[in-house]
Specification:
Length: about 600
């Protein structure tokens, strides 16, 4: 048996040439088990915040540890070579982690970290692991100071067996090439959305398209060598991007313009239709924006499906893990889960770069030959739990603005309020690791209420009306409400629990839940089990008993522009900012005065 090992995983915040990176996080692993994990944004209250200083302190404090108690600090980076140890130690020290040389482990590849974050928690003894994102680590020599003009990880295929992960192949890793994530990002910018963090809105817009550009091709299939047909000048050696100032393609207006022009050129060349220059906004989308979103979404689905089929056929392995930002595309995930070739699917819920911290810790643990046990991710509720005294102290701090009362049963109280069509904030246990509110930090509404979506859009969440809301459903009731068969239920059970697939609601049930049925009849469901989330399950069960509908509308608990809440104080502040009808936190029911 191996000795206990305590590992802190973090993702570095800045490249060697000074580019600031997003989505910082920290994960603590003790004796092979992940005990706490959190994104930096939850603590700084700035969306997609890079760095790890607050997250690392949070993890250590949650377990009563000091840095001296940590055996290993594991790090990774993207948009750069794997960091030199001295550079990594300097950056760690700048954020308050003075790490000794023998404490440091550098994960050699951004995509390897992603792969570790998906395979090791998956329960699969053997699996194909597909990593797809904008870009990862620079491969080989650095030939240009602009990282995007070098060889880069963009789509990587790994094989996982036991505690071993090895690279099978990469796609689109040559200078000037684009993978799935970068191509989707180009289309997202043409639509008028700022960057890849808004890709979920592209996915939503696609549901309104009619297939006008179905004849256009963005990706060649994997069997033909896979390549992206977008040819943006910003990504070629002859590009006109000014290399002075901050060398970051995604912050340069010139590069963004060239990316949107590449989308225009591709559609014109392949369909004969000029879609015009990129848009400045997506607040009031046009028919063209719907159709362009539908084009890239359908091409992503087809390209990923082809890739999965080809790798499964080559390896004979029918279990698939997904990681990287592309793995948050729940519509594409649904298509993959429906493939006959895929017998089981695991998608790491914090699939974006936040998940690097998890992958780093797990890879560093598995890298040691003596460590043969693996941690299974049975929940993504990896934040610390707040005590009753901490909750009451927060209520006292906000006492001039809120009133509170104790309830005997929070689930029953919440169900009763929802049935009366209140919009409620729900705070329970440790926060979720990843971008979804899954019943620990959620805003809930009555899915039967035809006005609920409009109220959320216009008053509480301040979201564009083309974006859908998700249902959280009693797991035992999912087959009765969704158009899925036994095979899909088995294949996608973990993805359904993590709100990472979007099957169709049964046609005879859609009219019963207008607040969560999307324009195309789908819904990004969360299947809630009593074992994984007992209090939330109890609330939905009580709501079902009162209404006959075994689901609630669930959206993440955050005001517009803010990250999801973390603390009781965050919950009360956001309840007031969002003008929610009530907040339930622990055994307290809180309202604005």
């Amino acid at each position: 048996m191996s000795m206990p090992t305590t590992i802190l995983g973090v993702n570095l915040a800045r490249t060697s040439i000074g580019i600031d990176l997003d989505d910082g996080a920290a994960t603590l692993l003790e004796d092979g088990h992940v005990t706490v994990a959190i994104a930096e944004e939850r603590l700084t209250r700035r969306k997609h915040a890079g760095g790890f200083a607050n997250a690392a302190r949070y993890c250590l404090a949650a377990r009563g540890l000091a840095l001296a108690d940590i055996d290993t600090v594991a790090v990774s980076i993207c948009c750069d070579h794997a960091p030199e140890p001295e550079f990594a130690r300097h950056q760690l020290a700048s954020e308050g982690l003075a790490v000794e040389e023998n404490q440091l482990v550098v994960v050699p590849s951004h995509h390897l970290s992603h792969a570790a974050s998906a395979f090791y928690p998956s329960h699969f003894e053997e699996a194909v692991v597909i990593v797809a994102d904008n870009e990862g680590t620079i491969i080989g020599d650095r030939l240009d100071p602009r990282y995007w003009l070098n060889r880069l990880e963009r789509t990587s295929i790994y094989i996982g067996r036991g505690t071993d992960l090895h690279l099978l192949r990469r796609y689109a890793d040559q200078p000037g090439q684009l993978g799935f994530g970068a191509a989707y990002n180009h289309f997202t910018k043409w639509l008028g959305l700022r960057n890849h963090h808004n890709a979920g809105q592209t996915m939503a817009l696609a549901a309104y398209g009619t297939g006008r550009f179905d004849g256009a091709t963005v990706f060649s299939p994997a069997r033909d060598g896979f390549r992206c047909h977008l040819e943006p000048p910003a990504l070629t050696a002859s590009g006109h991007v000014d290399s002075h100032g901050p060398i970051d393609e995604f912050d340069l207006e010139a590069a963004a313009l060239l990316q949107t022009e590449a989308v225009r050129d591709l559609v014109l060349a392949q369909s004969g239709i000029d879609i015009g220059p990129g848009h400045n906004s997506c607040q009031d989308p046009t028919a063209a924006q719907f159709e362009v979103a539908q084009l890239i979404q359908s091409e992503l689905q087809q390209g990923l499906s082809e890739l999965v089929r080809s790798v499964v056929a080559e390896t004979g392995i029918h279990r698939v893990c997904l990681a990287g930002g592309v793995a948050l595309n729940c519509v594409a995930n649904t298509v993959i889960a429906e493939l006959d070739e895929v017998h089981e699917l695991f998608i790491q819920p914090a699939a974006s770069d936040v998940g690097q911290a998890l992958g780093n810790a797990l890879w560093a643990y598995s890298w040691a030959p003596a460590h043969t046990r693996r941690w299974g991710m049975s929940t993504c509720s990896l934040g610390r739990t707040y005590t009753d005294s901490e909750i009451t102290a927060a209520i006292t701090r906000w006492g001039d603005r809120v009133t509170s009362e104790q309830v005997t049963n929070a689930g029953e109280a919440g169900a009763r309020l929802l049935a009366e069509q209140a919009i409620i904030g729900w705070f329970d246990g440790g926060s979720e690791f990843g971008p979804r509110g899954l019943g620990r930090r959620s805003v809930l509404a009555d899915p039967r209420d035809p006005t609920a979506k409009h109220r959320l859009d216009s008053v509480h969440k301040l979201r564009a009306p083309f974006r859908p809301y998700a249902p959280s459903v009693l797991a035992e009731e999912v087959p009765a409400w969704f158009d899925i068969d036994h095979d899909f239920s088995r294949t996608a059970s973990q993805a359904m629990a993590s709100m990472l697939v979007a099957p169709h609601i049964r046609s005879d049930k859609r009219h019963l839940v207008p607040a969560v049925a999307f324009v195309d009849g789908t819904a990004r469901l969360q299947a809630v089990t009593e074992l994984e989330n007992p209090h939330f399950h109890e609330l939905i069960r009580a709501f079902a008993a009162a209404t006959g509908v075994p689901m609630v509308l669930n959206t993440s608990f955050n005001a517009s522009g803010d990250p999801i809440i973390e603390t009781p104080d965050d919950a009360i502040e956001s309840m007031l900012k969002m003008r929610l009808d009530v907040l339930i936190i622990g055994r307290y029911l809180i309202r604005a005065r």
